[in-house]
Amino acid sequence: GIIFSMDAVVSEWMYDEEAARREAMGTLRPHPVLERMEGEAMYFVHSYVAVPRDPTLVLAETTHGVPFVSVIAAGRLLGVQFHPERSGPAGLRLLENFLRFANLLKTSAA
Fold first, then answer.
1. Torsion angle of alpha carbons 49, 52, 56, 60, nearest 10°?
2. Could you read off the pLDDT of 35-63 as tens digits, one per residue?
């Protein structure tokens, strides 16, 4: 799954009081999956925030009181802290970008 892939590169999870919310995502680093996604409101329904082992893996942060990691990438691995399937048109765009990126990887590996 997309969300569960964050576990592979997260050193710890920190508790966050707020559970369900929509927040605007801000991109830190460019990536094909985040094309046309900056500032989009995504659906977060987690009480924990990720602390990656390597901060250079962070592609995007979201701020809810304090900034927290919302997208990470390491090679072929991409993880998000929100639910694309519940994020409306922005979530669909992210999933389209993800499929396009996966096809690029598949083509370059052949």
1. -20
2. 999 888 888 876 777 788 888 989 998 88
Taking alpha carbons only, the member of 109, 102, 96 closest to residue 37 is: 96
pLDDT digits (tens, 9 = 90+) for 6-26: 666 666 666 655 555 667 777
- pTM equals 0.78
Cα–chain center distance at 92: 13
Q: Are 77 and 8 in contact (CB under 8 A)?
A: yes
Environment class of 88 (CB within 10 Å of its CB; exposed 0-12, middle 13-18, buried 19+): middle
- In this structure, what is the dihedral angle of CA atoms 22, 24, 29, 35, given to the nearest 10 degrees? 90
DSSP state of 2: T
Find out whether 22 and 63 touch, Cβ atoms under 8 Å: no
Output the CA–CA distances (angstroms, integers) from residue 97 to 18, 47, 52, 78, 100, in the order listed.
28, 27, 23, 12, 5
